[in-house]
Design brief:
The protein is mostly helical and 451 residues long. It is built from 18 helices and no strands. It has one domain: MFS general substrate transporter like domains (Growth Hormone, Chain: A, Up-down Bundle). The longest helix has 56 residues, at 297-352.
């Protein structure tokens, strides 16, 4: 298949390998090389290769995320190692550490000619941190292990923050608009296979859980390092627009506030995304509601939740991605409605005494994780397609900084659980997801627009 000539600063485009061509057209049949006039010509000419590189790097990244999941894996590891006092710090450190720093790192990343190097470097650091946590788990116990894990997780979160800021612009400059959801969703489904194998190993009893968990941490480190290397092979044309000038933090803060005042769609998006965090916060409370009075539920719950997460990702990732290519707004709306329905069903099952029946909790967790996958994919694709050219890094960092602050405030839900029980928390989260679905009605159909 011949390609158009490349700009002088890029080597001529090689023919796409037949496998890459077939995979690209099979997984993303609606994405044509000329489907997005805003895409640089050199990137349009290399769509099959770029698609496969994104698919591979994102798949490895998502596998690593599952293997080191702070809410499940690290929480279990610290508990069995006598460092349960540190468990409450894991999710705030990971989430806030990934989101809040983006206010400060967006400027330096925005001045890079090619942002893929920022993502690759961040992935390499994440891999090194995961390997460091595995080494700490093999050699430390108690408080020493707790502090080591928190320190390394903080560094991992900062590296993740760099990846988050850089990736949306990399995706927008290398994959056509009608293929972004497909590649993201397909990567999730691909990663779910590895995650499901890991979860089944945990439940199989063929080996002690602790060595398997530590082996998973090593696997996460290797996967992140591999992802960084793979994405560095991406064809990302150098930016030709003028390099942004350095700004003071005060000037950046004014710019953020100005964008929130002036961009009505951005405000609706952030409001919708904030309300949708209920799908992320719900699973631990669902498990706690089930495990009340059952001392063995924590151990079995690790494998259960990992299986639920893997199955939900595999079943819904590609489907949500294809739907997001047509309407990310509707994906966010539908995911919010599904999350609300699942939480209401959980409360009804608890009230009727059905939650302890075989398969009921697993099915509900499966549903809430399907909803959460839709939330993640819909919000990511919507922001990429909504943000003006040259402003994606800015919009990403602004959105994530606000959500990071909101997630810190969401810690009050643990107090609500202590005084009123997990059911009260789930009721609040159900109302939030319902409000999110209604809020998404105000978003525009950005997939039908051109910047």
């Amino acid at each position: 298949m011949p390609h158009s000539s490349s700009p002088p600063d890029l080597k001529p485009a090689p023919l796409a390998p037949p496998l890459a061509e077939r995979l690209y057209h099979w997984l993303s049949p609606t994405a044509r090389k000329d489907a997005d006039s805003a895409l640089p010509e050199a990137a349009r000419a290399r769509q099959p290769q770029n698609f496969v590189i994104h698919l591979s790097a994102l798949g490895l990244n998502k596998i690593a995320d599952t293997l080191i999941n702070p809410k499940l894996v690290l929480s279990w590891l610290l508990t069995v190692a006598g460092a349960s006092g540190f468990v409450g710090l894991l999710v705030p450190v990971r989430e806030a550490g990934s989101l809040l720093p983006q206010l400060f790192i967006a400027g330096p990343i925005n001045r890079l000619s090619q942002r893929k190097w920022a993502w690759s470097a961040g992935a390499l650091v994440e891999g090194a941190c995961a390997l460091g946590i595995a080494i700490a788990a093999l050699s430390l116990q108690g408080a020493a292990l707790g502090w080591a894990v928190i320190g390394l997780l903080t560094l991992l979160a900062l590296a993740r923050s760099v990846c988050s800021v850089a990736y949306k612009d990399v995706l927008a400059r290398t994959i056509a608009k009608q293929g972004r959801g497909s590649v993201t969703g397909a990567a999730g489904s691909l990663a779910a296979i590895g995650a499901l194998i890991f979860a089944l190993l945990l439940l199989s009893g063929i080996a002690d859980r602790e060595p398997l968990v530590i082996g998973g941490l090593i696997g996460a480190g290797i996967a992140w390092i591999g992802a960084g290397i793979v994405l560095s092979r991406l064809t990302e044309p150098p930016r030709t627009d003028p390099k942004p000038a350095r700004e003071s933090w005060r000037a950046m803060a004014r710019a953020y506030l100005g964008a929130l005042r002036e961009d009505h769609q951005l405000r609706i998006f952030i409001r919708t995304r904030a309300l949708l965090i209920g799908t992320a916060l719900a699973p631990p409370y669902m498990l706690a509601l089930f495990a009340r009075g059952d001392e063995g539920a924590h151990a079995s719950g690790l494998g259960l939740l990992l299986i639920g997460a893997a199955a939900a990702e595999f079943a819904s990732g590609y489907v949500w991605g294809r739907l997001a290519d047509h309407s990310s707004r509707r994906v966010m709306q539908g995911a919010g409605a599904l999350g609300c329905l699942c939480l209401v069903l959980t409360l009804l099952a608890q009230a009727m005494g059905w939650l302890s029946l075989p398969g009921v909790l697993a099915g509900l967790i499966f549903l809430i994780l399907i909803a959460h996958n839709g939330v993640r994919l819909g919000r990511s694709i919507h922001l990429v397609d909504m943000a003006p050219e040259g402003q994606r890094t800015f919009y990403t960092s602004l959105s994530n900084t606000v959500i990071g602050a909101i997630l810190l405030g969401a810690s009050v839900l643990s107090l609500l659980a202590q005084f009123w029980g997990e059911g009260a928390v789930l009721a609040v989260l159900a109302l939030m997801t319902l409000a999110a679905s209604l809020s998404a009605l105000g978003l525009e159909e950005v997939q039908q627009q051109r910047h």
